[in-house]
Amino acid sequence: GLAPFARLAAIPGVSLVSIQKGPTEGQAANPPGGFPLLNLSPDIRDFADTAAIMTTLDLVVCVDTSVAHLAGALGVPVWVLVPFMPDWRWLLDRDDSPWYPTMRLFRQMQAGDWDGVLDRLEQALRQRVDSLDPAPPQSGA
């Protein structure tokens, strides 16, 4: 579900957008706890729409789905949450992908531990936002 992502929505400067399709896309219509989430899922007709939306985003965060591969193929920055026992494509013991230079992998350190993955992802997202935030102007120079 979406509840674990609520903490990302609380980061100043972060806006969450849902491009989820399929049986679970309705989750974005009423996010748990009412956290802010722009739901673009109803506006997506096909994969071309998904690609067009992705190219307007600063970052895509997802699990191992076609969305991860599309973002990587488009060169869109993408962070992928990877289970402890990953698909062979994600290899082992690395946090990048040899196929997609804009991809970063956030792996489970033990089976079933998504909290640890989201802790690391939240920390990395805060660092990313801080690095993009312009420094306040200096007064009295």
Distance between the termini: 50 Å
Q: What value does the Rg take, in angstroms?
A: 16 Å
Count of discrete domains? 1
- Give the overall shape, derived from the CA principal axes: globular
Sheet having the most strands: 3 strands, parallel
* SSE order: HEEHEHEEH
Q: What is the overall number of helices?
A: 4
Averaged pLDDT = 89
CATH topology: Rossmann fold
Estimate the helix proportion, in percent: 25-40%
Output the CATH homologous superfamily. Answer: Glycogen Phosphorylase B
Strand-pairing-aware structural class? alpha/beta
Oligomeric nature of the chains: single chain
CATH architecture: 3-Layer(aba) Sandwich
InterPro entries: Glyco_trans_9 (IPR002201)
Organism: Azospirillum griseum
Pfam family, one: Glyco_transf_9
Protein name: Glycosyltransferase
In short:
By secondary structure, the protein is an alpha/beta fold. Helices cover 28% and strands 13% of the residues.
Please characterize this protein's 3D structure.
With 141 residues, this protein is α/β, with parallel strands linked by helices. It has one domain: Rossmann fold, CATH 3.40.50.2000. It contains 4 helices and 5 strands. The chain has a 3-stranded parallel beta sheet with strand order 3-4-5. A two-stranded parallel ribbon has the order 1-2. The longest helix has 19 residues. It is globular.
